[in-house]
Amino acid sequence: MMQDIEEVLFTERQIAVIVERIGKEISRDYRGKNLLLVSVLKGSVVFMADLMRSIDIPARIDFMATSSYGSGVKTSGVVKIVKDLDIELEGYDIVIVEDILDSGKTLSYLLDILQSRGPRSIRICTLFDKPERREVDVQATYTGAEIPDAFIVGYGLDYDEKYRNLPFVGILKPSVYETAGAD
Ligand code: 5GP
Ligand code: MG
Ligand code: MG
């Protein structure tokens, strides 16, 4: 897998520092509230697993999955819920946990859907943000790091379902997706 990585952007240790910091922020902001962490599968599972353990107040978790009918490296904007939440949202203070905010289409759609279910509050937490790429106006309250416009993999993030298990985050060599489909 390593030969497909152009450059390591965040080492395991650097990610751990970022996640700890966000965990502290959420613990501080949600003390005495009814925190529900909603992880968007599959990209945010690794982040979610680390983040929830860096939060030191009571928290519930749930998962949902969307599909975006996009090609490997871009979201189409047509988002569909593939797996819905198990929990009713009334009374919860929700933090949506995402891997990366890119065009904003996925999160803008999710925000609308979850908002319509009447939670007490709802905010976004994203590990990475590519502000340059935004097409829809969505902002995260908690952001791990802003990154340049490059396609990254690792720490949960995939290309074609691969590289999720890399413990660090790196830029994928464009040759990997430019030649995809040729085989
Ligand atoms: P958006 O709807 O904001 O355009 O796209 C968000 C989703 O696109 C992310 O949750 C992620 O699945 C995917 N995505 C966007 N940028 C990247 C990237 O650099 N690497 C990977 N692996 N996925 C990305
Ligand atoms: Mg995602
Ligand atoms: Mg993906």
Automatic annotation (TrEMBL):
Boundaries of every Phosphoribosyltransferase domain copy: 12-159
GO molecular function: glycosyltransferase activity
InterPro entries documented for this protein: HGPRT (IPR050408), Hxn_phspho_trans (IPR005904), PRTase-like (IPR029057), PRTase_dom (IPR000836)
Associated pathway: Purine metabolism; GMP biosynthesis via salvage pathway; GMP from guanine: step 1/1; Purine metabolism; IMP biosynthesis via salvage pathway; IMP from hypoxanthine: step 1/1
Keywords attached to this entry: Cytoplasm, Glycosyltransferase, Magnesium, Metal-binding, Nucleotide-binding, Purine salvage, Transferase
Subcellular location as annotated: Cytoplasm
Enzyme Commission designation: 2.4.2.8
EC category: transferase
Cofactor: Mg(2+)
Reactions performed catalytically: IMP + diphosphate = hypoxanthine + 5-phospho-alpha-D-ribose 1-diphosphate; GMP + diphosphate = guanine + 5-phospho-alpha-D-ribose 1-diphosphate
Family: Belongs to the purine/pyrimidine phosphoribosyltransferase family.
Listed NCBIfam families: HGPRTase (TIGR01203)
Function: Purine salvage pathway enzyme that catalyzes the transfer of the ribosyl-5-phosphate group from 5-phospho-alpha-D-ribose 1-diphosphate (PRPP) to the N9 position of the 6-oxopurines hypoxanthine and guanine to form the corresponding ribonucleotides IMP (inosine 5'-monophosphate) and GMP (guanosine 5'-monophosphate), with the release of PPi.
Protein name: Hypoxanthine phosphoribosyltransferase
